[in-house]
Amino acid sequence: MYETLAIDAALSECRKLHEKDRAFIESLVHGTRKNLIAIDARIADTSREWKIERMATVDRNLIRMALYEMLFSDMELKPNIAINEAVELAKKYGTDDSARYVNGILGAVLKAAH
After folding, report:
1. What is the Cβ-side half-sphere exposure of residue 75, based on CA atoms within 13 angstroms?
2. According to the model, what pLDDT value does residue 34 have?
3. What pLDDT is stored for residue 10 in this prediction?
4. pTM score over 0.70
5. Cα Rg for the chain, rounded, in angstroms?
6. What share of the chain in percent tops pLDDT 70?
7. Backbone angles phi, psi at 45, to 5 degrees
8. Separation between Cα atoms, residue 100 and residue 27, nearest integer Å
């Protein structure tokens, strides 16, 4: 329920948003939340130096969403595309070190999965 309120609040600021884009956003948020325990376990296994709760909020949530897309989403998306998108968002919304950090964690998870 809180996710839907957060999505609605964020999307209310968008002037024109296609229904398929809204559906994608809802799927990404709900899917990430639904698989959060498994996603956080992957992050914890990969990021031994930083506990999840100590990660910057933006970095942590970008990593979570990218991992959802890479590991759990029904959409056929190449992992490098999810990683690239997360890195670009980290550059825009994170700190100076966010892009490198997000790329490192996601790359390590991808490497461990193969």
Report:
1. 16
2. 94
3. 64
4. yes
5. 14
6. 86
7. -65, -30
8. 26
Q: With contact defined as beta carbons under 8 Å apart, do 56 and 94 qualify? A: yes
Instruction: Please list the alpha-helical segments (H only) found in 1-97.
Output: 2-11, 19-34, 36-46, 57-71, 79-93
d(CA 44, CA 50): 8
pLDDT band at 1 (very low <50, low <70, confident <90, very high): low
At 113, list the tokens: 């999965």
Output the six-digit token pair for 92.
């825009």
Q: Which of 50, 54, 105 is nearest to 83 (CA)?
A: 105
Residue 55 is classified by DSSP as: S
Residue 90 · residue 99 · CB < 8 Å: yes
Pairwise CA distance, residues 109 & 16, whole Å: 35
